[in-house]
Write a structure and sequence with these properties.
alpha+beta, two-stranded antiparallel sheet, 7 helices, 10 strands, elongated
Length: 194
Amino acid sequence: MAKGSVAQSRVDVVLDKKSIEDMSSLALGFAAGFDEKLINKALQAASEAAAKSMVKPVRAAAPRRTGRLRRAVGTNKVMRDKPGAYVGIRPGTKRDDTRGAFYRWIVTSGVSRVPYVISPNRKSGAGGLSLPNAVNGSSVRGSVTRTARIPGRPFVSEAVSRNIGTAKSVFADTLRAIIERGIPKKGKIRIPKK
């Protein structure tokens, strides 16, 4: 159900028709005469519901240093291999966008290349990176060289794999409810609330 490597900051929840043909709700939909386009529409809505059910566990598993990673957890539709949705960390539009976490790959994948140089952002108005000086407490401007590797913390994929049963049951329940209510030919499918 979930695909992606362990060291990624997003986990795709992609369910193909072959893996769910035995579900009674899908069989009911085919028996009711829905065409493939409508079934794909229902599968997309159910995939989005399953991905949304993973947001809370992923946020709970995120590191709590500043809370920025936790706030950046969200869902979106997949671009390829539709129908499907993914839960992951939003990058944000800019480096100072607090709704996203531009550093998500460093946290989830780590850095194995050493020495690793962190350069200041010369375009920012603040003048770049400012680090406290251990001698007199003043700030030192310039780049920082890390000599130790940063281990990855793949909390997104770990949280999804721990809660995959919940995602599957949400997917099945949502798909069943959508097909029983009828798949609309036009407009967005409203996901039924429990």
